[in-house]
Every structure is written in structure tokens, then in C-alpha cells.
Amino acid sequence: MRPNVTVIGAGSWGTTLASLCARRGPTLIWAREDEVVAEINAHHSNSVYLKGFELPAELRATRSMQEALQPAEVVVMAVPSPWFRSVLEQAAPFVRPSLPVLSVAKGFEPESLLRMTEVIAQLLPANPRAVLSGPNLAREVMAGYAAGAVVACRDADVAKRLQGVFDGGLYRVYTGHDVVGVEVAAALKNPIAIAAGMADGLGVGDNTRALVICRGLAELTRLGVAMGGEERTFAGLAGLGDLLATCISKLSRNRYVGEQLGKGRKLDDIIGEMRMVAEGIHNCSVVLELAARHGVEMPITREIERVVRGESTAVEAFRGLVQDPAGSETL
């Protein structure tokens, strides 16, 4: 028997994971919008965040945190990093001790610079904590295309248990122990995806985009290892895999933001037309603060942060990047 799963957050990825779980066992999803709850329950769809897909009839939604968590045996936190703590604070009184709490957010807490599992540890110290990440574009997973991810937990038994919750069919889930590396890779790739999108928007060519992605991988690996992650993690699904998907896919929100910036649009206008969150916008300044703390150079993220802050344009950012001395490729 698969455990009862509760997914907190009914955005595109939260809804996708809840749909996967609901096809295999009892699943509840918590949503903050009444209209999303009503639509999932009555019409088996979520047109706000995942338009065009039919959800399993077994999936039920609720606006009540207590109702959502009462039967839970596994808790999935699918809330963007800026609001992760506030939502988990609402959930914490109803999460029983020892239940695994899994984060699928891809960012750092803006004020504290904490990873999401660190936030979980503060609010739910008695609960095992884990992270799931990989090249997982929600609409492709819902469409039934093959995809993979890694679930990382310091407790190998918990990782194996969570693998069994999500792995199946064309969605392959691998286990790992490098929680730091998986979380850091997931967050650091977002500013790089904005840079790759800018390359598309500027029309500078595939060579330039490949250069940005490759040097972006080196950049995020440097900081990830300095923060305690294992180097090989950044060559895996949570690192290179997720980076590639986010940088090249037309479904990527971060890539889209970069593309529109490359076309000369204002960031406020781009954000205003998006219902979902592009984490890279919030991550840039946090990443640079972490880089300064660890003494790591992040030239691509530095230029993207200047564009996001309105201090530079996409054209100026790319000129700035090519003006930096090339140095050694292995550094």
C-alpha cells in the first residue's frame, strides 16, 4: 500500500506531483485559492496553473490545512521559496512527528539565505526532511513524456521510501544523500536560465547560449561545492539535467523571463502577465550574497542581477560577460 500523500501548494508542479500520486494511492492537495479547490474537486482540472490537462478523479483538494494534513503519511511542500516559511508555519501544527516532509521548491529563503530543508528543520525538527529535484517541466510530465528526478535525504531508508511514492511508469526517481548539493543546484540554475533566455531574446546564436550554459554550470558548481555539496551532484539530474531543461525549454518560466528581457521589455510588465513564479528573479541577489559569503566569483549571476534590478540591459550584460578575462576553464 502506498502512503497517504498530502501536497501543499497547487501550482503547476504541485498539481503534477499530486496527480502522479493520486493515480497510485490516496492523495490530497492544499490550495490557497477557493476557485482552484472548487475546480479540482468538481471538474478534475486546474485551469489557473495547469490548463488543458485532466486530473485524476481520485485527487481531492481542500482549503483547510487541518483537513489536508490529518490523513498525511508523507507531506510534499510545493510552495515557492519566498512564501515557503509562512505556509509551513500554517501547516506545522497539523504535521505529526516523524512524517517525512519533502521540499520541491527551487530557491533560498530571501531574508535568511536558508535552504528549504533548513527551514523545515527549524519549524519541524522532529520530522525527516528531503528534497526532490530534476529536469521536470510540469506540462511534459503531465503529457506522459519520460522524465527523471532525484530524491535526496540523509536517511537512506527515508529516501528509499519516498522513491517508492513517486517512481513509476515513465517518471523515474533515483535516490541520493547529498541534500545540500541537490537543493543548491536547483536554486542556482535559475539565474543562469534567465541568462540563456536573454541569449534567445537577443538572437545571439546557439554558440553563445551554449557558452552561457556551460560556464553557468561551472559557476553554480563552484558555489555549490563551497556550500557543502558534492561535485558529482552538479553533473547529475539535479544539476546539469535541470540546468539544461530550464535553459532551453520554451516551457521554462525563467528562460521566458530572460527572453523577454532580451527583447527589451520591462521586468514589471513581464511579471505582471505571469501567474506563476520565476524563482530566478528572487534568487539573484540571494545567490550573490551567498557567493560573497563563500568567496566565490559568479560573473553570470552578477550581470543578470544588474538587469533584474534595472541597472543594466540585456545587451550591456552580455557585453560585460565577454569583457571579463577568460582565465582557466577548470576554475
Give an account of the 3D structure:
This protein is α/β, with parallel strands linked by helices. The chain folds into 2 domains: 5-177, NAD(P)-binding Rossmann-like Domain (Rossmann fold); 188-323, N-(1-d-carboxylethyl)-l-norvaline Dehydrogenase, domain 2, CATH 1.10.1040. Helix content is 51%, strand content 11%. It has 15 helices and 8 strands. The protein has helices at residues 12-22, 34-43, 65-69, 81-91, 116-123, 138-142, 156-166, 179-202, 206-226, 237-248, 253-262, 267-272, 279-294, 299-308, 314-323; strands at 5-8, 27-30, 60-62, 74-77, 101-103, 129-133, 147-152, 171-176. It has an 8-stranded mixed sheet, sandwiched between helices. α8 (179-202) runs parallel beside α10 (237-248) and α13 packs across α14 (299-308). The radius of gyration is 19 Å and the shape is globular. The chain starts with a strand and ends in an 8-residue tail after the last helix.
